[in-house]
Amino acid sequence: MDPGVGVVITAREIYEAVVRLTGRVDVLIEQQKASEDVDRDHEQRLRALERARWPLPSLSLLIALAGIVIALFR
């Protein structure tokens, strides 16, 4: 070994590092896909709750107006 060279990295070590890195990237891609599925599901649930909730304020307004009309014509 040349005394001027502090570290020697072989092609085998580079290959093994790339293989490990590729495996980790694959895991991250799968985790991201799962996260996107969860996000999509949550978005759908929120939209459903918003659609189900909009009649409540309208119904309250109609009941209040009916009460005013009844009070006025009594």
Explain what this protein looks like in three dimensions.
The protein has 74 residues and is mainly α. Helices cover 82% and strands 0% of the residues. The longest helix is centred in the middle third of the chain and has 43 residues, at 11-53. 0% of the residues are buried. The mean pLDDT is 90.
Tally of DSSP helical segments: 2
What's the SSE pattern? Answer: HH
Helix content: over 70%
How many beta-strand elements?
A: 0
Strand content: under 5%
Radius of gyration: 32 Å
Structural class: mainly alpha
What distance separates the N and C termini? 106 Å
Low-confidence stretches: none
What does the main sheet amount to? Answer: none
- The shape, in one word, is rod-shaped
Summarize model confidence as the mean pLDDT: 90
Protein traits:
single chain; 74 residues; mainly alpha
Quick recap of the structure?
The chain is mainly α and 74 residues long. Helix content is 82%, strand content 0%.
What is this structure's SSE topology?
Elements: H1 11-53, H2 55-72
